[in-house]
Amino acid sequence: MAAENGLASLGVDGATAAAHALSLPAEAYDNDPQLEIMWAMKAYQHAEIYFNLISSVDPVFLKLTKVDDKIYTAFRETFSELNIQVLDPEQLKSTEAKEKWRPFCNQFDGVVEDFNYGTLLRLDCQKDYTEENTIFATRIQFFAIEIARNREGYNTVIYSTKQQAKKDEKK
Fold it and tell me: Where are the coiled-coil regions (predicted)?
C-alpha cells in the first residue's frame, strides 16, 4: 500500500488538518471518500507498526496499554471460549456477537483512548496482515484479542520466525 506517499503528499499543514479531521465525531461527516482513505491509511500504519513490534520483541513481554490487566481479565471473563488463534469473523460481526461485544467495548469508554476507532485485526495470528487475513475491528477489540494472543503465547510464532530469518541471513 502506498500509505507513505499519501501522507507525505499532504505536507505538514495537510497532515495537521487530517489529524484534526480524524479526531471529530463520525456524525460530523457524510461518506467522504477522502476521509475514508485517511482512515484506511491510519489503520494500515497502526497494523504495520504493531506487526513490526511483535516481530522485533517477544510478544509475551509486550504491554500495549496502561490497563492491559483489566482488558485481559474482562476479555477472558466475557469471551472465555473465543478461539483467538484463528478468529471466525462471525464471532466479531454477527448480530449476536455485536450484542455481546457492545457492553464489553463500552466499559472501556474513557479508559482506553480512542477505544472505538477502527483498527485492522489479523484473523489468523500466525500470519501477516493480508487482504484475506484481515478484518476491521474496534481498537478495544484489537487490544483485547492481541493482549490475549501475546499473553497466551499465540503471537510468539511471528517473533520466532523473524528471529530465525535474521539468524539465517547472517549465515
Answer: none
Q: What is the pTM of this model?
A: 0.78
For helices 33-56 and 156-170, angle between their N-to-C axes, nearest 10 degrees: 70
CATH number at residue 142: 1.10.3560.10
Cβ burial, residue 70 (10 Å; 0-12/13-18/19+): middle
Rounded CA gap, 125 and 149, in Å?
8
Which residue reads 495537510 in cell numbers? 14
Look up the domain containing 69 and give its range: 3-170
pLDDT digits (tens, 9 = 90+) for 7-45: 444 455 555 555 555 555 555 555 667 777 877 888 888
Report the distance separating Cα 152 and Cα 146, nearest Å. 10
Q: How far is CA 25 from CA 28, 90, 117, 151, in A?
A: 6, 27, 10, 33
Task: Find cell 478495544 and name the residue.
Answer: 140
